[in-house]
Specification:
The protein is flat, with a radius of gyration of 32 Å. Strand 21 and strand 22 (about 650) form a beta hairpin. The chain has four domains: about 5-115 and about 260-330, HUPs (Rossmann fold), CATH 3.40.50; about 120-190, Methionyl-trna Synthetase, domain 2 (Beta Complex), CATH 2.170.220.10; about 375-565, Isoleucyl-tRNA Synthetase, Domain 1, CATH 1.10.730.10; about 575-665, Nucleic acid-binding proteins (OB fold (Dihydrolipoamide Acetyltransferase, E2P)), CATH 2.40.50.140. It is built from 20 helices and 25 strands. The termini are far apart. The protein is an alpha+beta fold and about 675 residues long.
């Protein structure tokens, strides 16, 4: 039996303040959370949405070291960028704070101390990587060495970015410290551990029995962890950036960021509501919803609940955790380190006034059940073919016709005909579907429901043809446009959670305040006689040039990454000098160059080798325009046996180098030489 709650606390995963927010964060967490919060507000429910920046941890210290600034400088910069860009997209946080605030420091310290005083931790001693020269313990990311799988000499202690292998620091060959380049040594250190195994049975009952309604990806990942058996997890680490462990003798140790960060939900609520925060955390009539990505499922469904269980004092556990999968970009995994992303703050500059377009596309492609893909061509198509051609078209037609036939004033409806009754029935049906999908976190389907309102609006105008009826029956036209304008108001309500900027603009054109959710489909949202505003286009087409600019940017980034990550192939086995000297390497001048028919990769060269004209076929057609090679001097092997390629006898091999991006570059002398000159 479903329980009725008086209020809802929505939390959103805290974005890490070592970089801006990208579309993967938005699609996975912030847009769906905002949709749900706005929907509940439209229903008149008591809801608060809590957000903030996660500002502790090793990646921030690494970035600070690289830039020669303090960690506080880094988090101050990115906290501001993240907060401003979220606001620019209309993400309606009731508070967006940070984990470097004084109130968070105090809250996290008190949380740890209560568990410590109540004997909820275990102390364990282990060997950890250590830089003796710097006098510091080293996190995995502060250790580099040779990858045992591919030989990359700059593999990190947790991963090799060259071959993608997951590693432990102990796997590395010749590990060295990134602080001083000194060899890594190993030193004993002690830390506090939260014994998750102690809470295994209670967590299993709470998740596997009491929350079978959770999304399958969430439930399945939790079950997998529980089936494997939970293990103690360290809650502290040796680092000089973070919330200090509030225990005497723990100098140089801070709270591990996974323990510190979720407490930020509590501290941010305290900051927002210092006198009533407990109502949203401890009242059993409050439900808590965590919006997160799939990489945070275990922390929010197992680890944080175990922390709350260990703390006691009546803290609520999450009622639902509708985590999403990952969003890819142009078929490739979004990566902050590779700059392979669409950054929100840059999007807002490149596409001013198009916040709702991004919100719409990210919702339409939301990775709710599996990883999904964002492409710029799809972005353009959805804007032009759906927002402009369907939604914007219907609203514009309805308002323009009302201005044309009734001087822009809302007409009074008369007797309804079957086509009108079918429209009103469809609106009520769609409202039920829309509400059901929003209530169950199926936002992608809910968006389709909202768009169906615009589709049936266009269909209704096509069927009723008020521009024709106006010749004989203005009362009938009044009824048609009354229904059409009220449908525009329904659209404003239905789309407000998804596209708040458009909804606000539409309400202004209709001269109404934003209606309540319960008013959707009532058919009387715009009173007869209301003077409508002038029609404005809700959306405008996005041209090919804007999309090409984004694709060219990504292509440039891809090439930069290929060059940065280029690793030469291992050297071939040695050959003796006499064998090498048998190869006759020469320079020739290209007289003619043409594509080989029915062969995408092949070019046919006619080369002056100083003695005769010889034909050579080379597989570089995808990298050169044949005309650009005519007159160029190239290096080639002259004494290879003739070989037929696509029926053409090739008398040698042109030498090319393989670039980091896979492109081929023909080898040429730095200055012109006589054709046939030998290479020695």
């Amino acid at each position: 039996m479903e329980k009725n709650f008086k209020r809802t606390l929505i939390t959103t995963a805290l974005p890490y303040a070592n970089g801006p927010v990208h579309i993967g964060h938005l699609a996975g967490v912030y847009v769906p959370a905002d949709i749900y919060a706005r929907y509940l507000r439209l229903k008149g429910e008591d809801v608060i949405m809590i957000g903030g920046s996660d500002e502790h941890g090793v990646p921030i210290t690494i970035k600070a070291r690289k830039e020669g600034v303090t960690p506080q400088d880094i988090v101050d910069r990115y906290h501001t960028i993240i907060k401003d860009s979220m606001k620019g997209l209309g993400i309606s946080f009731d508070i967006y704070s940070r984990t470097t605030s004084d109130i968070h420091n105090a809250t996290a310290s008190e949380f740890f101390r209560r568990l410590y005083d109540n004997g909820q931790f275990e102390v364990k001693t282990s060997l950890q990587p250590y830089d003796a020269e710097a006098g510091e313990f080293l996190a995995d990311r502060y250790v580099k060495g040779t990858c045992p799988h591919c030989g990359n000499e700059d593999a990190y202690g947790d991963q090799c970015e060259a071959c993608g292998s997951s590693l432990n620091t102990t796997d590395l060959i010749n590990p060295r410290s990134m602080l001083t380049s000194s060899p890594v040594s190993w030193k004993e250190t002690s830390h506090w551990y939260l014994p998750l195994d102690k809470w295994q049975e209670r967590l299993s009952n709470w998740i596997l029995k009491d929350h079978t309604e959770w999304k399958s990806n969430v439930y399945g990942q939790c079950k997998s962890w529980l089936d494997m058996g939970l293990q103690p997890r360290a809650v502290s680490r040796d680092l000089n950036w973070g919330v200090p462990v509030p225990v005497e003798g723990a100098e140089g140790k801070v709270l591990y960021v996974w323990f510190d960060a979720p407490i930020g939900y509590i501290s941010n609520t305290k900051e927002l509501l210092p006198d009533t925060w407990e109502r949203y955390w401890k009242d059993p009539e409050t439900r808590m919803i965590h919006f997160i990505g799939k990489d945070n499922i275990v922390f929010h469904c197992i680890v944080f609940p175990a922390m709350l269980m260990a703390y006691g004092d009546g803290f609520n556990l999450p009622d639902n955790v509708p985590a999403n999968e990952f969003l890819n970009l142009e078929g490739d995994k979004i990566s902050t380190s590779r700059n392979w992303a669409v950054w929100l703050h840059e999007y807002l500059v490149d596409f001013p006034g198009k916040q709702d377009v991004l919100r719409y596309v990210l919702t339409a492609n939301a990775p709710e059940t599996k990883d999904n893909d964002f492409t710029w061509t799809d972005f353009q198509a959805r804007n032009n073919n759906e927002l402009v051609a369907i939604l914007g078209n219907f609203v514009n037609r309805a308002i323009v016709l009302t201005h044309k036939y009734f001087d822009g004033r809302m007409p009074q409806a008369g007797t309804l005909e079957p086509v009108d009754e079918a429209l009103t029935a469809d609106i009520k049906r769609i409202k039920e579907q829309l509400s059901q999908n929003l209530d169950t976190f199926h936002f992608r389907e809910a968006l389709k429901d909202a768009m169906e309102l615009a589709r049936i609006g266009n269909k209704y105008l096509q069927e009723t043809e008020p521009w024709k009826v106006a010749k004989t029956d203005m009362d009938r036209v009044a009824t048609i446009l009354n229904l059409a304008i009220n449908l525009c108001a329904d659209i404003a309500v239905a789309f407000e959670p998804f596209m708040p900027f458009m909804a606000e603009k539409l309400c202004k054109m209709l001269s109404i305040d934003m209606p309540r959710w319960t008013d959707l489909g009532n058919g009387n949202l715009v009173a007869p006689g209301t003077a409508l505003g002038q029609p404005e286009l809700l959306f405008e087409k996005i041209d090919d040039a804007a999309i090409q600019a984004q694709l060219q940017r990504l292509d440039r980034i891809k090439k930069e990454n290929q060059i940065k990550n280029f690793r030469p192939e291992p050297q071939a086995p040695d050959v003796d000098f006499d064998t090498f000297m048998k190869a006759d390497l020469r320079v020739g001048t290209v007289l003619e160059c043409t594509k080989v028919p029915k062969a995408d990769k092949l070019l046919k060269f006619l080369i002056d080798d100083g003695m005769q004209k010889r034909t050579i076929v080379s597989g570089i057609a995808k990298h050169y325009d044949p005309a650009d090679l005519v007159g160029k001097q190239v290096c080639f092997i002259a004494n290879l046996p003739p070989r037929k390629l696509k029926g053409i006898e090739s008398q040698g091999m042109i030498l090319s180098a393989v670039n980091a991006d896979g492109s081929l570059v023909v080898i040429s002398p730095s200055a012109n030489v006589v054709p046939g000159a030998k290479i020695s």
